[in-house]
């Protein structure tokens, strides 16, 4: 009773006075601690349970694994997994599913897959966790592939969280075709009821460039919350439609919806893409006094990006020196990007040095100065940048583009020749190149 009422002090007093503490009493208090954000206290209680020799059951395991997941305690999770295996409970869905979730939350996806394969009859939560895990590991195609397979074999185990993860995968892949089909399937099964799912849909359609579809989802919502408003504003900001993004923000405020920290990231991003320096500064300055949202370093980084994109690098540097936070790696990265775009070599050298000190693993701290030096014809300094990068065994992450044709995704990377139709593709590109040369002449 005390746990359900949220009075954990009272619950602990009653627990301590119990002469015989059954497993249900231990797990009840552990659940209370975990739900209250006191997962470490839940784990301490579990240690006491083990010390006192209390008999474990599947429910105890599920509760302590949830506590491990919230704290990302992968080593303890592995120890508990060993106990689970020893007792022959790996196939039990009530234990296996929290184990899968624990490994995913701890970014140990291979272990999550192995644990998932041991579950004899995975339920909707199990499948949702593994599909979400694929998304977390940026294996979005696998997430969609698993969803399709699951839908064919056992559609009964699909739930709204599963669909939300698939919407996320389609969003990153910018695959409006599959996303629209999944949306239709979710509607048919009445599994898009939550505002979280609808917000994921808005994000998906927005990132696919289908802003009319995003608007249709948004306008179909009875009472869109701040997440939905922010998703819609972000969609327009993402595509550089600043005027519409800012109009939506003002409409949101007029409707009485209180913006949050993420909303202002979207608003400042819109200002950055449109070069609205004064307007961006106004939004940043009024966040706290007008909207009671305290600006973070992320918001100040957005403002640095606004100045840098607009080419007013001296103002950007002045702003960085005056802001209430120490510039972080992202601050200097935004500034350095502006230096490269607008060919500010001397300031770019300063920014590159600062970025390399704060985040020596970020290739931007080497690649962008290299580009600046080559633009200026300073080949020795450019070579030195490459040497620094090679000495640290860093590699620039290659950009990748893709297109879906007849239900199959084709990936393309600069210089890559692994595609089975590479020869035909390059021949066609040469045709286009020759045609454009003639056209330009």
Describe this structure in words.
The chain is mostly helical. Among the domains are: 1-93; 310-397, Serine Threonine Protein Phosphatase 5, Tetratricopeptide repeat, CATH 1.25.40; 399-441, no CATH class. 72% of the residues lie in helices and 3% in strands. It has 25 helices and two strands. It has helices spanning 2-5, 8-17, 23-35, 39-51, 58-71, 74-86, 93-105, 109-118, 124-136, 140-154, 160-173, 176-188, 195-207, 211-220, 226-238, 242-254, 261-274, 277-291, 297-310, 313-322, 329-341, 345-358, 364-375, 379-391, 422-440, and strands at 400-405, 408-413. Strands 1-2 form a two-stranded antiparallel sheet. α21 runs antiparallel to α22. It starts with a helix and ends with a helix.
What distinguishing features does this structure have?
441 residues; mainly alpha; 2 strands; two-stranded antiparallel sheet
Distance between the termini: 83 Å
Number of helices: 25
Read across the widest sheet, the strand sequence of neighbours is 1-2
Indicate the percent of residues in helices: over 70%
Structural class: mainly alpha
Question: Could you give the topology of this structure?
Answer:
Layout: H1 2-5, H2 8-17, H3 23-35, H4 39-51, H5 58-71, H6 74-86, H7 93-105, H8 109-118, H9 124-136, H10 140-154, H11 160-173, H12 176-188, H13 195-207, H14 211-220, H15 226-238, H16 242-254, H17 261-274, H18 277-291, H19 297-310, H20 313-322, H21 329-341, H22 345-358, H23 364-375, H24 379-391, E1 400-405, E2 408-413, H25 422-440
Antiparallel strand pairs: 1-2
């Amino acid at each position: 009773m005390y746990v359900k009422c949220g009075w954990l002090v009272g619950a602990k007093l009653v627990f301590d006075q119990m002469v015989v503490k059954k497993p249900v009493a231990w797990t009840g208090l552990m659940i209370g601690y975990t739900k209250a954000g006191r997962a470490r206290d839940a784990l301490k209680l579990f240690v006491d349970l083990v010390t006192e020799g209390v008999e474990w059951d599947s429910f105890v395991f599920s509760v302590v694994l949830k506590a491990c997941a919230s704290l990302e305690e992968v080593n303890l999770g592995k120890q508990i997994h060993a106990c689970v295996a020893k007792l022959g409970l790996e196939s039990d869905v009530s234990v296996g599913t929290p184990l899968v979730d624990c490994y995913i939350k701890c970014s140990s996806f291979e272990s999550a897959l192995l644990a998932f394969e041991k579950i004899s009859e995975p339920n909707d939560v199990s499948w949702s966790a593994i599909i979400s895990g694929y998304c977390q590991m940026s294996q979005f195609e696998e997430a969609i592939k698993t969803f399709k397979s699951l839908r064919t074999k056992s559609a009964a185990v699909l739930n709204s969280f599963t669909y939300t993860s698939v919407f996320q995968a389609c969003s990153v892949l910018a695959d409006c075709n599959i996303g629209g089909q999944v949306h239709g399937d979710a509607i048919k099964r009445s599994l898009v009821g939550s505002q979280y799912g609808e917000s994921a849909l808005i994000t998906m359609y927005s990132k696919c460039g289908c802003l009319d579809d995003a608007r249709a989802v948004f306008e179909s919502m009875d009472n869109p919350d701040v997440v939905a408003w922010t998703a819609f504003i972000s969609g327009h900001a993402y595509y550089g439609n600043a005027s519409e993004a800012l109009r939506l923000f003002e409409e949101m405020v007029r409707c009485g919806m209180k913006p949050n920290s993420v909303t202002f990231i979207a608003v400042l991003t819109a200002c950055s893409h449109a070069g609205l320096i004064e307007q961006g500064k106004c939004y940043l300055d009024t966040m706290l006094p007008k909207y009671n949202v305290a600006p973070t370093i992320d918001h100040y980084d957005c403002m640095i990006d606004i100045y840098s994109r607009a080419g007013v690098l001296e103002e950007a540097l002045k702003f960085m020196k005056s802001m209430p936070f120490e510039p972080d790696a992202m601050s200097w990265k935004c500034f350095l990007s502006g230096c490269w775009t607008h060919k500010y070599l001397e300031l770019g050298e300063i920014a590159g040095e600062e970025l390399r000190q704060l985040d020596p693993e970020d290739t931007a701290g080497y690649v962008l100065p290299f580009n600046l030096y080559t633009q200026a014809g300073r080949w020795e300094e450019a070579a030195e940048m490459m040497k620094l990068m090679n000495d640290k065994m860093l590699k620039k992450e290659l950009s990748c583009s893709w297109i879906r044709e007849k239900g199959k995704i084709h990936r393309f990377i600069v210089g890559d020749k692994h595609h089975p139709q590479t020869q035909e593709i390059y021949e066609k590109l040469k045709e286009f190149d020759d045609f454009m040369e003639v056209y330009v002449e």
